[in-house]
Amino acid sequence: MNRIIFSLVFLVACTIVQAQEAINFQKISLSEAKAQAKASGKLIFIDGYTSWCAPCKWMEGNVFNQAVAAKFYNANYINIKFDCEVGEGIDVAKQYNIRSFPTYLFLDAEGELMYRSQSRMETPEFIAEGKRALDPNFQIPTIRARYEAGERSPSFLAAYITTMTKVDPASTAEAKNALDEIADPSFLKSEAGWNIIELFGQSPKDKYGKFFMDNRPYFKGILSAEAFEKKEAHLMKYAMYDYIRTKDEAQFKEGLAYFSSKTDEASQVDAAMFKVEWIGAHGTDKEFIDYTNQLRKGLFKQEDERLSFIARRYSGKYGTGKEPSAKILKQSYVLAKQAVALNENSYSNQGTFAEICITLKKKKEAVKAAEAARALAELETSKIVKIADALLARAQAI
């Protein structure tokens, strides 16, 4: 009897632990969620998704099931989700003007929108968004009233722009102009100035990114190594794509040296991908083949996603907008085939390989890959299933 009781207690404990390892999305209506919010004093979190939305499925499998996210959202919110194309979800999408997926709504007990966010994001960012939604300094009714009352401090403007960009981007133009006027060099070297650079410095060509890049020695001296390197690398990545686009070889080589000199694997991968992009845009077929062979036998030897991405980008179906040569197409086939060998259970890998085989009129391999992609599509969205059906039909028609 004691053994049975122990087993039951253990089972209940395991169930509780498992429940805490994923966000508890209750299967209740919005009105029921409002009642719970009113009784508990919590806000409501709504995940607005669709059945065909790949980023929605990614969040489900990579973020909503993380214990740290579950702990935060389960403690602070009444969590519900709606397919915005089915049932009550249609009305919710219409009421809150949901047009892209996933969209995240944070409501009070009356259903008033307190904060809004969207798109795929990593767990720390997702939790940070949840924390902003709880902070009155970022809540829509509060900041809207403060803005209309004439408040224009830099920190407030930053919060206003951060929040309202996700609600009504057009409404932030005036606030951005006001912030630009206030943010002179002396201000940008303050702690509040750094916060604004961190939020709004997206490119070495915009006001805040350029100021950071022009004053790197200063910021390196006052910031933590982690904060400085994160912002510098972010801006350098934007710069590299610009150098490739404008064919600025001298600046590109300098940027490539920046990433290549770092010892971490992520930087080495970034350097390799930038070099592939440069060669793909400005190099010869031989250079592309030699370098991608070097990668597939070395740094990317086990990187099926990277190999598949390069194959997909340069095979002409989804990539650069120019027709690939026969040699580049053949090399894309080699890369895609290796990606499938490394991970045959990837829809992306199989679909890419099938597309290239169709182009090369390799019917047997095309059908095999397309059939595998179709089977894997069952684990994806309804939209992906339709694409896989069409892919298989084209393979069979060769």
From TrEMBL:
Top-rank taxon: Bacteria
Keywords noted in UniProt: Signal
Thioredoxin domain boundaries: 9-139
UniProt signal peptide: 1-19
Annotated protein name in UniProt: Thioredoxin domain-containing protein
Taxonomic classification: Bacteria, Pseudomonadati, Bacteroidota, Sphingobacteriia, Sphingobacteriales
